[in-house]
Amino acid sequence: TKEATAGRCVDAAMAMLAMIASQALHVTERTPPPALRSFVDQIRAIVPPVGADRVLGPELARLAEWFTQKVFEA
To answer: Which of the residues 26, 42, 44, 46 has the least number of beta carbons within 10 Å of its own beta carbon?
Structure first.
């Protein structure tokens, strides 16, 4: 359905934004605020911080699926 397709697009966008935010914290050597630590840890368990070039597509796909699962748990 159109709704399911739109939902998958939102989940993929959220995955990308989450990875970018996690990477920004890593590069600037900042720790996440206490309220977000668990969330960032979960993101990094799926997409570890980038230290060297690597293909991120499969990791981002898993992270998008993780967001989808979280939505349907709620």
So the answer is: 42
